[in-house]
Amino acid sequence: MASNSPAHDGIELQEAPTAGAWGEWNPTEDSARPPRGKHRVAKQRGGLARSSTVLGVGVIAAVGAGGIATAQDRPQVAISMPSLPDFGMGGGGADGQRPAQAEGTTADTAATAGRTGIMAQQASAHADAGATLVGRILQQAESQESAAEARTRAQAEREAQEAAAAEAKAKREAAEKEAEGVRLAAEQAAKEAKEAKEAQEAKEAADAKAGQERLTKTSGSYSLPTSAYTLTSHYGDSGSMWSSGHHTGLDFAAPTGTPAKAVAAGKITSAGWSGAYGYRIVLELEDGTEIWYCHLSSMSVTSGSVGAGDTIGRVGATGNVTGPHLHLEVRRGGSTMDPLAWLESKGLNV
């Protein structure tokens, strides 16, 4: 409402907005005309008070986010012009009006107080907004630091997992390689064993075939048991040197190492040490007749088939002897017979 008092000292009071027509009223350099008296409105710089607190908040607002409330964002504050009583200072006329000088002074004081309150509210609002912004900045910095630490931990865990996976892969490949080497070695050993077995079987088959061929070739033929010999003792000779009291074979005296040969085709049934007979070989012929070769110095064949004339041992002086010779016995059904007569019956000239 407009003041009914005349202007005082050139100060013109502005009409205070009513509650229903309130828009926004903040005293500025334009709305508050410079008074000529001592009551002057402090000139605002950029809408902020020049206190250190408000300046600090302005710096934070410039660095950080926007959104600091300004005076225009605050709700309007109504400034009413109170009616002052007349204290007799240049009292008013009969209509009750105060003197112009007193009324102008009161209006200036009220306007200055209103502007001071608004500035205080603005400063408080800026301080609150600045404190909130600082809290948000610190919270954001802490959140970013926590996120960085989480990323660092995740990276370290990922690298550790990758290293563990690489180590496990290397161990698995080494184990597979070792297993492959073992498998190849086993296959090679099995192959060599198979080849050796086949070679042995082939050799045995060849020996059997050769023996069969030799038996076929010499079948029906006979050979003297040794060569370069001298008959020294005959079958039936008596003497204390024989445990039975008589000689049971035919002695062919010959130098040690002279070949002892199979008299006919047959197979070796026994070969080895035999007490008084020394080293002995028993040759069984196809008709069951056994030929004993005794006092041998060595044995060339100890098993298998042989043909007539094959060397089966060497003449020696092992066992109960007086010198190197071949003691030859012929046995049939466990009984001895005269070797000389048997050899001659086979067409041999002894």
**Element string (H = helix, E = strand):** HHEEEEEEEEEEH
Shape: rod-shaped
Low-confidence stretches: 1-21, 46-55, 65-71, 87-96
Number of helices: 3
What is the CA–CA distance across the termini?
177 Å
Task: Give the tags.
3 helices; 15% strand; Glucose Permease (Domain IIA); 39% helix; Cell_wall_metabolism_enzyme; alpha+beta; 10 strands; 2 domains; ten-stranded antiparallel sheet; 350 residues
Describe this structure in words.
The chain is α+β, with helices and mostly antiparallel strands. The protein has three helices and ten strands, in the order ααββββββββββα. It has helices at residues 52-63, 100-218, 339-345; strands spanning 230-231, 250-253, 259-261, 266-273, 279-285, 290-299, 304-306, 311-315, 325-332, 335-337. A hairpin with a 5-residue loop joins strand 4 (266-273) and strand 5.
Entry summary:
The protein is an alpha+beta fold. The protein has two domains: 1-154, no CATH class; 230-345, Glucose Permease (Domain IIA).
Q: How are the elements arranged and paired?
A:
Elements: H1 52-63, H2 100-218, E1 230-231, E2 250-253, E3 259-261, E4 266-273, E5 279-285, E6 290-299, E7 304-306, E8 311-315, E9 325-332, E10 335-337, H3 339-345
Antiparallel strand pairs: 1-2, 2-9, 3-8, 4-5, 4-7, 5-6, 6-8, 6-9, 9-10
Helix pairs in contact: 1-2
